[in-house]
């Protein structure tokens, strides 16, 4: 990656020392862990209350519960990573939603309520995590909490009204009206799940809730809509054909999941290839160890702070990983990897050479354009702004300069010193809003 100078003339700035530890791997927003705890406590409270209810009033229709619980557990075992690096279990989510919205089964009324739906869903989700725990990996508590709470919302909107005959009295238990009501219940549950996902994702990534909510809403329009539709269809079809609805009407969702999984696998392979290529500069001694990953992580967090969408963040990630590849054209490595000693003409030459390498890797052409423009300052010599430079290039430029200056001392005092130096350069070299976004990200770093 291009260092402070390759990002553009950071005059008088001191590059970091080799072997410095990552500066932001453990970054967290101080108040967000409390939100995560609140979600967990809510889920645990709902499960405990549901268990107590069943202990008093009893468990009904165990074979139906076993069938749906098994279906949900199998779906959890088939969890996959979908676009956007989201680990989801579409089949398990659809099965849990169908059980929450289940009224009649093969023409016979069911009598399970909200408490039983919550307990069965929780048990199935826990069973689905067993192989992961056996392999020594961390349990997905976020997913369990989301599943319990969102399914609880769906069950709360349907089961009490169904079991008490309210839907029957208002003509909502049969025909198109029933389908419409189930769709509304499923939609509300999906929105609740989207909000929980945004809350938890924002806590883990440091992104603002509104930005995380926007990303999750995009995900809902993709696989989420298929989950909602499948859950509703299974619940309706089970009223006529019984438990056969589970395998029959899950096939379309399985095909959709397979398509998403294939796409995610292709993208993961592409990223691994890019990351391996980016390490070439470190192996050859042109850049500091871990520099590529640190700058990439920081750039992506700044990108989220500036409300970049998922597609823009992907291009930003690729550019941050590969933006130093042009240094391989140098005969001798620059001390510390910093190119501040080079002229802007040489910096641009390095960027162009790196861009040509990237164009031959199959990476989206936008990435090559970002790398080619990294040496361009925020303002021209006449004081006008160069509006043709991609925002991603400006973000990588700032993130790269920060890591060069702060990687040897990631403490709060050094951060403030580096940010002050970067602010001094906003008159020409760095875009002010990018530097301020970086400052907000730095404020959320642990001391």
Could you please describe the fold and organization of this structure?
This protein is mainly α and 447 residues long. It has 2 domains: 218 residues; 177 residues, Hypothetical protein af1432 (Orthogonal Bundle). The protein is built from 18 helices and 4 strands. The strands form 2 sheets. It has a two-stranded antiparallel sheet with strand order 1-2. A hairpin with a 3-residue loop joins strand 1 and strand 2. The longest helix is centred in the middle third of the chain and has 33 residues. The two termini are 26 Å apart. The N terminus is likely disordered.
Secondary structure blueprint with pairings:
Elements: H1 32-57, H2 62-77, E1 80-82, E2 86-88, H3 90-100, E3 104-105, E4 108-109, H4 114-134, H5 141-163, H6 166-169, H7 175-205, H8 209-241, H9 245-248, H10 251-278, H11 280-283, H12 291-305, H13 310-322, H14 344-359, H15 365-372, H16 391-406, H17 412-424, H18 432-443
Antiparallel strand pairs: 1-2, 3-4
Helix pairs in contact: 1-4, 1-5, 1-7, 2-3, 2-4, 3-4, 3-5, 3-8, 4-5, 5-7, 7-8, 8-10, 12-13, 12-16, 12-18, 13-15, 13-16, 14-15, 16-17, 17-18
């Amino acid at each position: 990656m291009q260092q402070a100078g390759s990002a553009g003339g950071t005059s008088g700035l001191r590059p970091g020392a080799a072997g410095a530890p990552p500066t932001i791997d453990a970054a967290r927003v101080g108040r967000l862990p409390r939100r995560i705890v609140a979600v967990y406590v809510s889920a645990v409270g709902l499960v405990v209350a549901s268990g107590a209810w069943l202990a008093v009033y009893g468990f009904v229709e165990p074979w139906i519960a076993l069938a749906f619980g098994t279906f949900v557990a199998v779906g959890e075992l088939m969890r996959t990573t979908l676009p956007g690096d989201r680990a989801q279990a579409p089949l398990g989510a659809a099965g849990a939603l169908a059980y929450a919205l289940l009224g009649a089964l093969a023409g016979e009324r069911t009598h399970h309520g909200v408490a039983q739906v919550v307990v069965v869903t929780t048990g199935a989700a826990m069973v689905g995590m067993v192989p992961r725990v056996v392999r020594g990996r961390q349990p997905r508590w976020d997913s369990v909490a989301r599943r319990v709470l969102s399914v609880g919302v769906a069950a709360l909107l349907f089961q009490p009204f169904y079991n008490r005959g309210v839907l029957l009295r208002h003509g909502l238990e049969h025909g198109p009206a029933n389908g419409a009501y189930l769709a509304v219940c499923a939609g509300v549950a999906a929105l609740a799940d989207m909000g929980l996902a945004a809350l938890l994702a924002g806590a883990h990534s440091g992104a603002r809730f509104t930005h995380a909510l926007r990303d999750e809403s995009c995900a809902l329009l993709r696989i989420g809509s298929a989950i909602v539709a499948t859950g509703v269809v299974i619940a309706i079809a089970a009223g006529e054909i019984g438990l056969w609805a589970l395998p029959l009407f899950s096939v379309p969702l399985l095909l959709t999941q397979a398509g998403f999984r294939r796409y995610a696998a292709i993208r993961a392979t592409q990223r691994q290839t890019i990351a391996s290529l980016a390490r070439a500069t470190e192996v050859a001694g042109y850049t500091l160890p871990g520099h590529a990953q640190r700058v990439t992580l920081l750039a992506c967090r700044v990108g989220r702070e500036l409300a970049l969408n998922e597609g823009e963040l992907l291009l930003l990630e690729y550019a941050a990983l590969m933006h130093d590849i042009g240094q391989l054209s140098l005969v001798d490595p620059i001390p510390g990897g910093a190119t501040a000693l080079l002229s802007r003409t040489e910096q641009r030459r390095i960027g162009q050479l790196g861009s040509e390498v990237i164009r031959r890797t199959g990476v989206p052409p936008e990435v090559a354009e970002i790398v080619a423009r990294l040496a361009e300052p925020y303002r021209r010599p006449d004081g006008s702004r160069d509006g043709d430079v991609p925002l991603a290039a400006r973000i990588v430029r700032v993130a790269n300069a920060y890591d060069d200056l702060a990687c040897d001392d990631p403490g709060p005092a050094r951060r403030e010193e580096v940010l002050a130096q970067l602010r001094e350069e906003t008159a020409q070299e760095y875009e002010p809003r990018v530097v301020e976004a970086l400052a907000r990200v730095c404020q959320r770093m642990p001391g």
